[in-house]
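Just curious: can you write whichever protein you like plus the matching structure tokens?

***
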Amino acid sequence: MIDLTAFLEAKRRIRPYTHHTPLIRSDYLSERTGGEVWLKLENHQPTGSFKVRGALNKLSQLTEAEKAQGIVAASAGNHALGVAHAAGSLNLPQVDIFVPETAPDAKLKKLRRFPVTLHLAGQTYEAAHQAAAEFAQKSGALEISAYDDLAVITGQGTVGLEVMTNLPAVDLLLVPVGGGGLLAGVATAVRHIKPTCHIVGVQPEASPAAQLSFAQNRAIDPYDHAPTIADGLAGGFGAKPFALLQQNPPEIVLVSEAKIRQAIMLLLAEQQLVIEPSGATAVAPLLSGAVDVRGKTAVCLLTGGNLAMNLLREIMNEQR
């Protein structure tokens, strides 16, 4: 268990380098669903994603000896950006980042602005992760997990603190879930403050690792997922997130690729928000009716805005 003090300390630790992101009411989604629907805009973070929270909380606690080892991280893109930003903010000298060759251009362009060594490895997050692990073993660098690390999880959970600060009336939180760091952090933090708040993890049908993990009572990581545009949610569900949530598992809802695409377009058209697939996934269950928020106050965590322009053009052409 991570106690509430740890989340409060993480919030203090990362405050100089992150934003307390906006929480806005969606008139459109509220009218459509019959609930009070709010959107937490993590696309407003310096790197365009919530991942910077966990990276900063982890790296800011490293010892001098650990810093001297060098840092390595694997990511579909946003964790890499978070680690790069955190390392730059904290003046860490040696950072190696591994991402799949298929990582969106929007994320790669941002990564190349940081003083890190970028490695393109394989076609999936798991391939990049294996390459990073091998590099860490050979070089002695410290590998920073995207989700399977308590300090990272605690940093991600500060999103939940902000939601409870701004909207204590929240009844239900919809959280995109891949490896589970955000889900575990947010669920743990929010339940300390409001145990009755219902937590819903949302993941693509193409990668149901969290749902299968709770069904089989074991963390499934890695997971051989099907193709999905929500690359940040693809792959396995971590052992530490599973351990934190095992006694009180959140509801897990799966959404189709079509609904994720619809959510991206809706957020652009109705809210003037450019949100990447992994972030828009939080809204998808409201469009399909998989989650009923009638009479409730619900918050959708829009976890990032690093949307590839070629994918956006493709989706816009589909909706014509």
